[in-house]
């Protein structure tokens, strides 16, 4: 694994915290890590962005951002409203490839879901992933409705010739209901790829020290952690 794209089935589902957990687990395993945010929206210059938050939680990573637009909108729309040039897939691929020459792992965190438009040509994170031949890690919610969104994301990715590393639940509740517990089984079928972790709800509010210590417990060995999918499902099996 050199470049790993991190996308999701929507917005506000934990992509940044999952990216931070993966970065922390990789650092704990002795890897050097860079985090690239191609387009940060909804923030003004000087405010902390998603890549900065990953660095705060995970530790000594290289944090990079290609463009920032103030409106909290899709990157293409936010760039247009700001009168600024959008970020194209070639720019993303070039920046990620350069970081990959200097780091063991480069995490590229998208905006919103996989097919959110980055520019007026209709390019998305998927086009950058294709240029890099990089796999997708899909962050998904645990609750009712996640199976359809996960299946749609996986189908869109495969239609574009992209590989799925797997899925990670971006916010596992302290007291999961029936839907969440059933989804621990059904997400693998919906994605056609393994469930590779579950990050607890609210993990981003932990202190950096506590976050870094716990992160490997939330992710499977494929993501530098020691999370056990079978044990997790057994713990939360639906009765």
From TrEMBL:
Q: Which residues bind substrate?
A: 41
The primary location reported for this protein is cytoplasm
Keywords tagged on the record: ATP-binding, Biotin biosynthesis, Cytoplasm, Ligase, Magnesium, Metal-binding, Nucleotide-binding
Q: In which pathway does it act?
A: Cofactor biosynthesis; biotin biosynthesis; biotin from 7,8-diaminononanoate: step 1/2
Q: Which residues bind Mg(2+)?
A: 16, 50, 109
Which positions carry the signal peptide feature in this UniProt record? none
So what EC number does this one have? 6.3.3.3
Active site (record annotation): 37
Q: Where in the cell is it found?
A: Cytoplasm
Q: Which cofactor does it need?
A: Mg(2+)
Enumerate the transmembrane spans. none
Q: What class of enzyme is it?
A: ligase
Q: How does it assemble?
A: Homodimer.
Which NCBIfam families does the record cross-reference, listed alphabetically? bioD (TIGR00347)
Q: Summarize the protein's role.
A: Catalyzes a mechanistically unusual reaction, the ATP-dependent insertion of CO2 between the N7 and N8 nitrogen atoms of 7,8-diaminopelargonic acid (DAPA, also called 7,8-diammoniononanoate) to form a ureido ring.
Family to which the UniProt record says this protein belongs: Belongs to the dethiobiotin synthetase family.
HAMAP family listed in its UniProt record: BioD
What protein name does the entry list? ATP-dependent dethiobiotin synthetase BioD
UniProt organism field:
Streptomyces koyangensis
């Amino acid at each position: 694994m050199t470049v790993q794209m991190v996308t999701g089935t929507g917005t506000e589902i934990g992509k940044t915290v999952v990216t931070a957990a993966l970065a922390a687990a990789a650092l704990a395993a002795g890897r050097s890590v860079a985090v690239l945010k191609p387009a940060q929206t909804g923030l003004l210059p000087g405010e902390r962005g998603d890549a900065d938050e990953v660095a705060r939680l995970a530790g000594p990573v290289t944090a990079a951002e290609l463009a920032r637009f103030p409106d909290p909108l899709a990157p293409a729309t936010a760039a247009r409203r700001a009168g600024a040039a959008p970020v194209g897939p070639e720019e993303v691929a070039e920046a990620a490839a350069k970081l990959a020459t200097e780091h063991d792992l480069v995490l590229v965190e998208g905006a919103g879901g996989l097919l959110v438009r980055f520019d007026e040509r209709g390019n998305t994170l998927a086009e950058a992933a294709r240029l890099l031949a990089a796999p997708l890690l899909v962050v998904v919610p645990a609750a009712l409705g996640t199976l359809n969104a996960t299946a749609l994301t996986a189908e869109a990715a495969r239609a574009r010739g992209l590989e799925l590393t797997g899925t990670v639940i971006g916010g596992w509740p302290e007291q999961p209901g029936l839907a969440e517990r059933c989804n621990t089984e059904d997400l693998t079928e919906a994605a056609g790829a393994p469930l590779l972790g579950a990050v607890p709800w609210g993990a981003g509010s932990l202190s950096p020290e506590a976050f870094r210590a716990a992160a490997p417990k939330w992710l499977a060995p494929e993501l530098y952690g020691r999370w056990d999918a079978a044990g997790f499902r057994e713990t939360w099996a639906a009765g």
